[in-house]
Write a structure and sequence with these properties.
The complex is a heterodimer of chains A (332) and B (163).
Chain A: H1 2-30, H2 35-50, H3 59-70, H4 75-88, H5 95-107, H6 112-118, H7 127-141, H8 156-167, H9 174-183, H10 185-195, H11 198-216, H12 225-260, H13 264-281, H14 286-298, H15 305-312, H16 317-324
Helix pairs in contact in A: 1-4, 2-3, 2-4, 2-5, 4-5, 4-6, 4-7, 5-7, 8-10, 8-11, 9-10, 10-12, 10-14, 12-13, 14-16, 15-16
Chain B: H1 13-29, H2 35-38, E1 43-47, H3 49-65, E2 69-75, E3 93-100, E4 122-127, H4 147-160
Helix pairs in contact in B: 1-3
Classes of the chains: A mainly alpha (332), B alpha/beta (163).
């Protein structure tokens, strides 16, 4: 009996430690709680719950939104604190997750803010935070499988995000990369193809900045034609590469469309060229290889075991993991 | 010259496309815009919705042609076709001068969101309502006529570009 009690106690302690540990993880992951902001989020949360079915016309809601915004001019901080609130709050059937999405709506920040803040937490172990973050991304990009043909997929803001990250030499969070490829491999490929030259642009901007500053100080810098020539050569190479990727994506997505819409004969005719493009991309940059993996996994007629086996050995971890994994599904 | 302010956003994409092709032609075939050789470059300026379009044109030049704009100017820039301030740094601009006022209700520019600025770029925000030396009473409808504002745009241009 005593042993059983001890086991139960040990179980409770383990559960408690795990819960605390998980909570601490999220807190470390996001940011330390700011007491004033957390209290105001809670106040706004309570006001929204009492606001009836038309919160947008409720003056109390707007008053609390304004009070929240006045606590910090740092938009990223407010959104991080909201994410922390979501991750650490308990509610019946996680209703607070939906209300928090409403708070984000009322804050009316540009999409660049949630993209920046949430990108690392796609796929987090914290269930509420994962739901909250995924909900925001889903409604933003509308890249669900079988979405109506007239509803455009929006990856435009993702391009801005990736471009800035590459230009600044910062790492792009792996969960975000997996997410955009899973949802829409073609759009993800184009995002990386368009953003690929961003580091070159940043280097060029820095070189221009040096000359501008020198001229501001009254100096007359020497012309640097060789440097200009180098940038021009890089630009030409990038431009050529981008066009080839655009064409490849178009050929593959066209073949997928023919197959999906039952144009069997036309699909069979288009398949060899699409496979040829996939073979080529499988030898390209890591982001092109990742595209090949997702296309093959999501569209069985394109699947080639030899290519997947080769990519499973790739030095890029994202590529090798995706190629080894059996779990890539159709976009949600 | 009398200027009729548009109140309905016409489909200006063909105009931007034309400008894009013209600029690309000048850069690639008429040797315009080589900054490292003789300090030339591409400059794009726009006022109000034109500021919003300046953003779009600069981004197109970068995205489609690989052209880096040397000098961009937003003058009380508004997102084209909308009513919100154009506060995004346009990829890719070496020097962006962003002049705006905050006297006009709703329709006015704003400081550039620093999180959108690429490494190496320079952004100069001037709020004429609060910046010393500028008449604090400029509105969306008078900022483009102000000689001090015009001088600052032109002197900055002269300081950056030789030809």
């Amino acid at each position: 009996m005593r042993q059983a009690r001890l086991r139960i106690l040990a179980f409770i302690v383990v559960c408690w430690v795990n819960t605390v540990h998980a909570q601490q993880d999220v807190e470390i992951l996001i940011e330390k709680p700011d007491a004033a902001i957390q209290a105001q989020i809670q106040k706004l949360f309570n006001t929204l719950q009492k606001s009836g079915d038309d919160a947008r016309s409720n003056i109390d809601v707007w008053r609390e939104v304004k009070a929240l915004k006045q606590l910090s001019t740092d938009k990223d901080k407010l959104v991080r604190q909201l994410a922390l609130f979501v991750a650490t709050t308990k509610s019946e059937e996680d209703s607070h997750v939906l209300v928090a999405a409403g708070i984000l709506y009322f804050l009316d920040f540009p999409p660049s803010v949630p993209i920046r803040v949430f990108a690392p937490y796609l796929g987090t172990d914290n269930r509420q935070l994962r739901s909250f973050v995924e909900m925001w991304f889903y409604s933003h990009d509308k890249a669900a499988n079988d979405s109506p043909p007239l509803r455009p997929v929006n990856y435009d803001d993702y391009l801005d995000y990736v471009r800035l990250k590459i230009g600044r030499g910062e790492e792009i969070p792996a969960p975000f990369i997996r997410y955009i490829y899973e949802r829409s491999p073609g759009q993800a490929l184009l995002v990386f193809a368009y953003a690929a030259g961003s580091r070159d642009v940043a280097v060029k901007l820095e070189a221009m900045h040096t000359i501008i500053e020198a001229r501001k100080q009254g100096k007359e810098p020497e012309p640097q034609p060789e440097l200009g020539q180098q940038f021009e050569e890089r630009r030409r190479a990038r431009s050529k590469e981008k066009r080839e990727i655009e064409l490849a994506e178009h050929i593959v997505s066209n073949a997928i469309w023919l197959n999906k819409n039952g144009f069997t004969d036309r699909f069979q005719a288009a398949l060899p060229e699409a496979n040829e493009q996939l073979d080529k991309l499988a030898k390209g940059e890591w982001w092109a290889k990742l595209y090949v993996v997702y296309i093959m996994r999501q569209n069985p007629p394109f699947l080639k075991d030899s290519i997947l086996r080769q990519l499973a050995e790739d030095e890029n971890k994202l590529v090798s993991e995706a190629a080894s994994s059996k779990s890539i599904s159709k976009p949600r | 010259m009398a200027f009729e302010v548009p109140t309905v956003p016409v489909d200006i994409n063909p105009v931007i496309s034309f400008a894009e092709i013209e600029i690309a032609n000048a850069v690639f075939f008429r040797n315009v815009g080589n900054y490292f050789d003789y300090f030339g470059g591409v400059t794009v300026m726009g006022y109000s919705w034109g500021g919003g379009l300046a953003h779009d044109l600069i981004e197109r030049l970068s995205q489609n042609e690989g052209i880096t704009t040397l000098y961009g100017v937003y003058l009380d820039a508004i997102v084209y076709g909308g009513v919100t301030a154009q506060d995004n740094w346009p990829n890719a601009t070496a020097y962006l001068l962003n002049m705006y006022e905050t006297n006009t209700i709703l329709i006015h520019g704003a400081a550039i969101d620093p999180t959108t600025i690429q490494a190496g770029a320079t952004v100069e925000d001037v709020n004429t309502t609060t910046a010393p030396g500028y008449p604090g009473n400029l509105t969306h409808y008078s900022i483009d006529d102000d000689p001090q504002v015009q001088n600052h745009i032109l002197s900055t241009l002269a300081g950056i570009m030789l030809r």
